[in-house]
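Pipeline run #58 for the internal structure catalog. This entry was flagged by the ingest filter as a single-chain record with no existing model, so it goes straight to prediction. Upstream metadata was stripped on purpose; only the residue string is passed forward. Reviewer on rotation: M.T. Logging verbosity set to normal.
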Amino acid sequence: MGYLLRRLAATLPVMAVVAVVVFLLIHLSPGDPAALIAGDLATADDIARLRVALGLDQPLWRQFGLWLGRLASGDLGTSIFTQVPVRELLAQRIEPTLSIAVLTMALTVAVAVPLGTLAAWRAGSWIDRAVMLFAVLAFSVPVFLVGYLLIFAFAVHWPWFPVQGYTRIADDPAAWLRGLVLPCINLALVYIALITRMTRATVLEVLHEDYIRTARAKGLGVLPVLGHALRNAAVPIATTVGVGIALLIGGVVVTETVFAIPGVGRLVVESVQRHDYPVIQSVLLISAAVYVLINLLIDLSYRLFDPRIVY
């Protein structure tokens, strides 16, 4: 418990730095949301009045203080363009993003860990070379290009899956799953390649340990030996999964844009184009908090794989 409390306390300065950096990056970047809202026919006086109404005429330190004050009370602010609270916008968009993220990581772990273990077991064989070739190709090809190829092949040429859009799970679970097949495969390929390579490297190292040779000498089968090796190689694999989840936050933006899925990723893209400060700040800050929390959970999971670890 003491370790957990210390780690949680250590996240506070991290989140404070993230909040400052995010605020400054957004507010110091070129572009004026008041000018975008006012339109091309607006005069300088119209833009100035709008800036006053939006609070953009105040000094940066005061805008930052007001934003922190709202955050402390649980208020994420209101979108400059839609005048809808950011909390409501996120509530409307969070289901598609969570669906993609959860299914992508489930698919990644289900494919990458067995594939990497098999490559380590058959190291040097054609199976190992084929798995590594797949990993290199999957890691090298851009996500957006793979997405367009998947759409052309499995939605246009062979109309097995919908081209774009999203169906809520409460409306039609089958259509929900069918609509997420291509986006999840598109996004999972990179992480499958990453975790496959890490799994192969760590399992291959463990397979050369003395206790694995002893287990083989005692006549244990292939599956028990691999299971034993995989358990001892689980800590670096879990760390890589945590890194993959962090990278997933950025990958979702591209995937949702390619497949026209109304998730948080597309909301960020739309907000950046319109300089919608409250939305961008809230999404980036929440993403940073999720990243810190996931890393904490990954650290706490080490003890499940290796009881010798003491926090």
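catalog note: The radius of gyration is 24 Å.
catalog note: The chain has a mean pLDDT of 78.
status: ready for reviewer M.T.
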